[in-house]
Amino acid sequence: MKKWTVMQQCMVAFGIVLNVVGAFMAMNLRLPIYLDSVGTVFTGALLGPAAGMMTGACGSIISGMTFDVYSLYYAPAQLLTGYMAGIMFRTVWMKDYRLPLGNLAISLPTTAASAVVTSFLFGGITSSGSTYLVMLLNKLGMNLTLSCFVVQALTDYADELVAALVVTALLKVLTPEMRAKISGSRRGF
C-alpha cells in the first residue's frame, strides 16, 4: 500500500470536518437529510475508495462520541459511501447529465445498510429528522422495515445527491496542478 502524503492526510482531515459539521447542522435543524457524507464523497472522489472509507468511518466515530451516538452505528453505511464514491467518481457516471444515475450507485448500498440498522437496531427511531417520515409511513400501515427502506432510499439518495453536487463543484475549482499535488501523481486526473 502506498504511503499517504501530508497533503492527502490533510484532505482526509478536511473531509472529516465537513462530515461532522454537516451532521451537526442537519441534526440540530432536524433536516430530513443527513449532510454527514460530503467529506466522505469528497475524499473518495479526490483520493479514492480507501480515503473515502477512512473519512466516513472517522466522521462517524467523532460524531458518535461528541453529539450523536446513533452515528456510530451507521459507520458501515459511511464505509460503503466512501468506497462507492471512490469508484464512481472515476467513471463517466458522475459527470454531466449522468450524475443522477451514478449517484444511485452510491446511495443504494448505503440505503440497504442504513435501513437494516434503523429498522432492526433502533425500531425506526433515530436522531434524524427522517424518523418522522418513517413513523408516518408505519402508522399508515406500512411494515416498519419497508418504511425504513423507503425513507432511507429517498433520504440517502437526496443526501448523496447534495454531496455529489457539492463535490463536483469543489473539484471544478481545483486546477490540474492542485489535483496532481493532492493525489501525489505527476499530473491531474
Summarize the structure in words.
With 189 residues, the chain is mainly α. The chain has a single domain (6-183), classed as Arp2/3 complex 21 kDa subunit ARPC3, CATH 1.10.1760.20. The protein is built from 9 helices and no strands. Helix 1 (6-28) packs antiparallel against helix 2 (38-47), helix 1 crosses helix 3 (49-66) and helix 7 (131-139) packs antiparallel against helix 8 (144-173). The longest helix has 30 residues, at 144-173. The radius of gyration is 16 Å and the shape is globular.
Content of β-strand = under 5%
Which stretches are poorly predicted, pLDDT < 50 over at least 5 residues?
none
User: What is the CATH T-level topology?
Assistant: Arp2/3 complex 21 kDa subunit ARPC3
Shape by Cα distribution:
globular
Rg of Cα set: 16 Å
Could you say which structural class the secondary elements and strand pairing correspond to? mainly alpha
Helix content range: over 70%
Q: What number is the mean pLDDT?
A: 94
Q: What is the CATH architecture term?
A: Orthogonal Bundle
What's the number of domains? 1
Secondary-structure element series = HHHHHHHHH
CATH class group:
Mainly Alpha
What is the distance, rounded to the nearest whole angstrom, between the alpha carbons of the first and last residues? 20 Å
Q: Write down how many β-strands occur, each being a DSSP E stretch of 2 or more residues.
A: 0
